[in-house]
Structures are given as structure tokens and as C-alpha cells.
From TrEMBL:
Pfam families cross-referenced by the UniProt entry: Lactamase_B_2
Lineage, broadest ranks: Bacteria, Pseudomonadati, Bacteroidota, Flavobacteriia, Flavobacteriales
Domain called Metallo-beta-lactamase: residue spans: 12-205
Organism: Maribacter aquimaris
InterPro entries given in the database record: Metallo-B-lactamas, RibonucZ/Hydroxyglut_hydro, UPF0173_UPF0282_UlaG_hydrolase
Residues in the signal sequence: none
Protein name: MBL fold metallo-hydrolase
């Protein structure tokens, strides 16, 4: 990986491992069967990496839902990487305290805040989801800007807010497309990408549960018609951009 590149590894659902300039930022790792245990929805794919392979410097959890704040896997990650700061909104920090995480590494954030994750500058963005504290983020590193929508519905207000926080070109958007349970659908995701004028658009939050998925090709083909580069990430396979 050259000095100006960023690598992205999709972990399935809304989970990612970002790497740049020696910093590893882990987002929303969902590795357990907790959703099946509590809600009866069986995973369609196994965790693409072992927890021992993650080695994060920072952990960012966007909201307190089982497939984002995994109450089985995240305590294991916290125990193994005990010095890695855990960053999240109020609902996440409250849950982490309830699970007896070390308070010294818990960092609460809210929309419009900026948090430095090693080489990544992370700007916390709004998200409109059933957890009222939900957030997304803009990641700025190596003269590139990545927008991670996290779980959110679409609105013109969201577009306006993201434009205001981005303060310039967004190079890559990672956007939910499943269209259920408080998330935008693939068509709304295309509108978001078009209005934010991203160069690359990558779908996420599909393929984990049969009851809550979408065909990513609908999104990809619509983006291509707008001359926006779009493709699927393969869970567990690092993509350098």
C-alpha cells in the first residue's frame, strides 16, 4: 500500500476495517449470532475475519443495535485490544458502561464533532435511524474524503448536512441500501450519491439476513448510468483505493 492509498475491508452489514498510514480503524464489527438468538434472524455469512486479525488502533460504533454494537463480540474485542479507544454516541457509551468496559477508553461523540483517530480525521455526521443517537462519519486522510452513512433514512436535510460537513469533494461513499428497518432503499441511496457528487459509491448493509437484504446490482447499475464508479466489496477481502 503506497503512502497515499487507503484500504477498506468490508466485514459484512455495516462493518468495516479502514487502514491508512499505519492506523487501523474498526467500525461496527458484527461477528456473533446475537441477532439469531434474540430476533430469530440467521446469519447468511460467517464472520470474514478472526478477531485476532483485526488489530484495531481505534473502534467506532455508530449506534446501539445488535448488528452494530455486538454485545457478544465487542467485549471480546475490547478485552483483546484493551488500549484501543472506543468511540460512539451516547447510546453506545451507555451500553459499553453497562457491559463494564474500561471507562478510560470510552469517548462519546455527537454529530458535527471532529475526532482524530491516528491518521484519520473523523467528522461525526448525522444519521436518522431508530436509535436517536445514531451517527455516521466522514473520514479524511491522504487528501481523500470517505463518507460512511451508517444506518439512516434519506432526506434532503441529510444531504444538506453532509455537504456542509464535507467542505469539498467526497471521493468515496459507503451507503446502506436495504430499505428496511429505518434505512434508505437502493434508489434513495443512488439519489444521495448523485446529490453528493461522489466519484465512487459502494453499497453496504445487505446480504447478512434473508429477511433484510437487497440486490446490490440495482444500486451499482443505477450509479453507472450516472457515470459514478460503483462495485461490490467482498467481505474479508481488502480493497485498496
Amino acid at each position: 500500500m503506497n503512502n497515499n492509498s487507503i484500504s477498506i475491508t468490508w466485514l459484512g452489514q455495516g462493518g468495516f476495517l479502514f487502514e491508512a498510514n499505519g492506523t487501523r480503524l474498526l467500525v461496527d464489527p458484527f461477528f456473533s449470532d446475537i441477532v439469531e438468538q434474540r430476533e430469530g434472524l440467521k446469519r447468511l455469512i460467517d464472520p470474514p475475519l478472526e478477531i485476532s486479525e483485526l488489530n484495531p488502533n481505534y473502534v467506532f460504533i455508530t449506534h446501539d443495535h445488535l448488528d452494530h454494537f455486538d454485545p457478544i463480540s465487542l467485549p471480546i474485542i475490547h478485552e483483546k485490544y484493551s488500549e484501543a479507544p472506543i468511540i460512539g454516541p451516547e447510546s453506545v457509551i451507555k451500553k459499553a458502561k453497562d457491559l463494564d468496559f474500561s471507562e478510560s477508553v470510552l469517548h462519546m461523540v455527537s454529530k458535527n464533532m471532529t475526532y482524530q483517530c491516528g491518521k484519520f480525521e473523523m467528522v461525526i455526521t448525522p444519521a436518522y435511524h431508530s436509535d436517536p443517537y445514531s451517527v455516521g462519519c466522514l473520514l479524511k486522510v491522504n487528501d481523500k474524503q470517505i463518507y460512511l452513512s451508517a444506518d439512516t433514512t434519506f432526506s434532503d436535510i441529510l444531504v444538506k448536512e453532509i455537504k456542509g460537513l464535507a467542505l469539498g469533494k467526497i471521493d468515496i461513499i459507503l451507503v446502506c441500501i436495504n430499505g428496511k428497518l429505518g434505512n434508505m432503499n437502493w434508489s434513495e441511496a443512488v439519489t444521495l450519491v448523485d446529490q453528493l457528487q461522489s466519484e465512487i459509491a459502494i453499497p453496504m448493509h445487505y446480504g447478512m439476513f434473508a429477511e433484510n437484504t437487497e440486490d446490490p446490482n440495482l444500486f451499482i447499475h443505477a450509479c453507472e448510468k450516472l457515470d459514478i464508479t460503483s462495485f461490490e466489496l467482498i467481505p474479508g477481502i481488502k480493497r485498496t483505493i
